[in-house]
Specification:
Residues 26-226 form the Aminoglycoside phosphotransferase domain. This is Phosphotransferase. β1 (27-31) and β2 (36-41) form a beta hairpin. The chain has two domains: 16-89, Phosphorylase Kinase, domain 1, CATH 3.30.200; 100-130 and 164-271, Alpha-Beta Complex (Aminoglycoside 3'-phosphotransferase, Chain: A, domain 2). Helices cover 42% and strands 14% of the residues. α4 packs antiparallel against α5, α5 (158-176) packs across α9 and α6 crosses α9 (262-271). It is built from nine helices and nine strands. By secondary structure, it is α+β, with helices and mostly antiparallel strands. A four-stranded antiparallel beta sheet has the order 1-2-4-3, with helices on one face. A three-stranded mixed beta sheet has the order 5-9-6. Strands 7-8 form a two-stranded antiparallel ribbon.
Length: 272
């Protein structure tokens, strides 16, 4: 879709076609007279977009540092050719660099967000429903992995990996029936979605969903450093993860059941 057209729908003018600052989705940094803005794609208004916007506004009202739609003379967010876009303020701050203080404060922020969640899905956010892996998908994935490994001269224990896939498939029904505590959460809580001001400020809440909170934590462990040039190109170390949890536990204590099934959850989210 033409980026100039999107800007114009929100009342902004551009002499040239804007260039997205994010390679996987249209995200435009717009310089205003007194402040800067971000225009980006968000959840479809016809499904869960309005619910997400209501949820993040409530988070902001309760003291969470999170972007909310900028008041404009036109509708914001709005549906443009069946795709929903939103204008957020551009947040000035420092990018994550992997210090223990940054990790601890990020853990505190997620813990506070989880602690503020209602016990039921009162915001009507999209519920987590990835419990439908099947054997055919395992076989298909393994063929793709083998082909990729052969092309790049990689040595992968495909037999062991296939076994782990199958074990995850077998356990998913059990995880679904555990009655795990669920929370309203941004569900994409990672370093490239935070700006330190110096407190962490959440700049991309658009994937907000209703998710088992232990699943949300597993995703953080697996992906927190993903897509972030200034972050270490690896998962958290055991020490870093403990620092994150120390911050998280300021607001939330996991149940014994959540702690007991952590290894199974981690595998489930990894293979998902």
């Amino acid at each position: 879709m033409n980026g100039k057209y999107i800007l114009e729908r929100f009342g902004f003018q551009a002499k040239e076609e804007p260039v997205s600052i994010y390679p996987f989705s249209p995200v435009y940094h717009i310089q205003g007279e007194n402040t800067d803005f971000i225009i980006k794609r968000t959840q479809n208004l016809q499904k869960y977009g309005n619910q997400v916007m209501h949820y993040i506004r409530v988070l902001r009202e309760k003291g969470i540092l999170v972007v909310t739609p900028v008041p404009l003379e036109v509708e914001n967010p709005q549906l443009i050719d069946d795709v929903t876009y939103v204008v957020y303020p551009f947040i000035e701050g420092k990018k994550y660099s992997g210090t223990q203080e940054e990790i601890y404060e990020a853990g505190k922020l997620l813990g506070k967000i989880h602690a503020l969640s209602p016990e039921k899905n009162a915001f009507d956010l999209e519920p987590y429903d990835v419990f439908d892996f099947d054997i055919e998908e395992v076989i298909e994935s393994m063929e793709q992995i083998k082909a990729h490994a052969a092309t790049n001269n990689l040595i992968i224990a495909c037999g062991l990996l296939r076994q782990k896939f199958l074990e995850a498939v077998a356990r998913q029904a059990e995880l679904q029936t555990h009655g795990l505590p669920s929370v309203a959460t941004p569900y994409d809580f990672k370093a490239n979605n935070l700006v330190y001001t110096p407190a962490p400020f959440l700049i991309d809440p658009d994937n907000a969903s209703w998710v088992p909170r232990i699943f949300d934590l597993a995703l953080v462990l697996l992906l927190f450093h993903n897509e972030m040039a200034t972050a270490p190109s690896r998962m958290f170390t055991a020490e870093e993860w403990q620092v994150f949890l120390d911050g998280y536990h300021v607001y939330v204590q996991l149940s014994e059941m959540e702690q007991a099934i952590w290894p199974a959850v981690l595998e489930h989210v990894f293979f998902g």
